Amino acid sequence: xxxxxxxxxxxxxxxxxxxxxxxxxxxxxxxxxxxxxxxxxxxxxxxxxxxxxxxxxxxxxxxxxxxxxxxxxxxxxxxxxxxxxxxxxxxxxxxxxxxxxxxxxxxxxxxxxxxxxxxxxxxxxxxxxxxxxxxxxxxxxxxxxxxxxxxxxxxxxxxxxxxxxxxxxxxxxxxxxxxxxxxxxxxxxxxxxxxxxxxxxxxxxxxxxxxxxxxxxxxxxxxxxxxxxxxxxxxxxxxxxxxxxxxxxxxxxxxxxxxxxxxxxxxxxxxxxxxxxxxxxxxxxxxxxxxxxxxxxxxxxxxxxxxxxxxxxxxxxxxxxxxxxxxxxxxxxxxxxxxxxxxxxxxxxxxxxxxxxxxxxxxxxxxxxxxxxxxxxxxxxxxxxxxxxxxxxxxxxxxxxxxxxxxxxxxxxxxxxxxxxxxxxxxxxxxxxxxxxxxxxxxxxxxxxxxxxxxxxxxxxxxxxxxxxxxxxxxxxxxxxxxxxxxxxxxxxxxxxxxxxxxxxxxxxxxxxxxxxxxxxxxxxxxxxxxxxxxxxxxxxxxxxxxxxxxxxxxxxxxxxxxxxxxxxxxxxxxxxxxxxxxxxxxxxxxxxxxxxxxxxxxxxxxxxxxxxxxxxxxxxxxxxxxxxxxxxxxxxxxxxxxxxxxxxxxxxxxxxxxxxxxxxxx
Length: 667
Hints:
By secondary structure, this protein is mainly beta. It is built from no helices and 59 strands. The strands form 18 sheets. A 5-stranded mixed sheet has the order 14-20-19-16-17, with no helix packed on it. Strands 29-36-35-32-33 form a 5-stranded mixed sheet, with no helix packed on it. It is flat and about 155 Å long. The mean pLDDT is 90.
């Protein structure tokens, strides 16, 4: 008979599996009451459940129980990553709970290798082959479930490659000797000198000498990997280098070998001049017969270790220029363009032209020649195109006497209206006078009427009987006479007890201000005067720093300073003063003179532009003066007509920038 039973009535969760409590592994056929034939029955609702089982001998057993349902079982599920021996396999839980239940426990069974209670564990298997992994889960309602998957643990590949000894700058194919006993190798990833390759046997050029690490990572079809890092000894290569001089058709081109070898080894040089020839000399020369480009290659091989280096340079063989000059004439003291004919060579660019006299060398593509004495001179013309190829030619140059052209010097400035008498001091026979490039006279000594402002450029052009010409140019600035020197800004700093003062000046007039005097007055009564030597030209701005450095005693505090520009001819005095205030609060000084005369004067400093309020009261409290005056930053000086002359005592109230002071004054 079959020994099989479902056990007593029980309570399960919807979704749980019901299996035989006894004899689950003996039957070969199952028939449940709903007609299903699986070795288990999935519970969905409370009901009576029966099963018929048959073993291999055909014996039959039957059992029936009642199953009650309490809650819904969760669905157990998971996924896993790459399965390689000794490599951590990542397991990710995909289980789902229903009806608001929460999965509270996870129990992973890795067979003989271990277990875990983490939700998403990592686990490494020490052996290859198939492993059964089961995940058991349970919710907070007590419902549980499980699922089982079979994992195939694969063997790791063995990464390897043959090590090499190579030369710097040599290109070498690396031999991959990696093997895999479990699956095909599907990729090889190399890293050499920061360059990556993903082929089995890469070709690499080693850019530097020394020990170079090469890394190889091989991957099987099952994504199992192995890595190997091995050193490769790279021998230093020589450094091939050479220079050459100008390469011209039919001229020897000299090559200089600039190569160096490692540890000063002896080396062999092989030169290749395109298909035209070769040489094994250290420093050869070669003659190229045609205008063309040729590739010159130098191969340097170290005799001790065989390491080589190669340098190729493309050399352009250039055409020669052709120089020709005719006999010609010029004028003494005048630079004349030298007429010459130059063919720079087919396809060549312009270069330099040099004229060589006995004591004079002129250079330039369009050279000019100026000789101070009349006579006949021999000269040599040497031309060099842009490539450096040369040719020469010679001829004679006849220099005629040039006229002496001049007129009496003009003043720097002229104030209109006026008449300028032009005094010609020249010796030629023809004259042309120009004002700002406009011809105005051909007389020898003309007069020029000036009736407006502007720059007057006067040019005298003259010619003698030999056709030699000369010019003389002078200029004067026509101005309306107005003199106005002004002060833009003054500054002061106190450093280590010393006072340093500077002032910005500007000429707002039309005539220069020469040697103006600058007067510096300090709030303590000290006064200094210095002369600014030189000219302050119209429109010019200049900063003057006082040479005097005043030492300030420890018990003294400067409140302000003022600077006055004193120039006798100044026609506008309103901009000739400035002041500088120390500190950030205004200072109001007692009025003076006291007793007052016809006027009473008041000095104060202001920190901002604004208004000053001035009131005067008699002994009865009556207001005899109420004024508001404009003030500016710095020192201000106000003169007030005596509002109540008579010798009685009055009270003066002054307010500046929010500060108020009261004084007794006898008017």
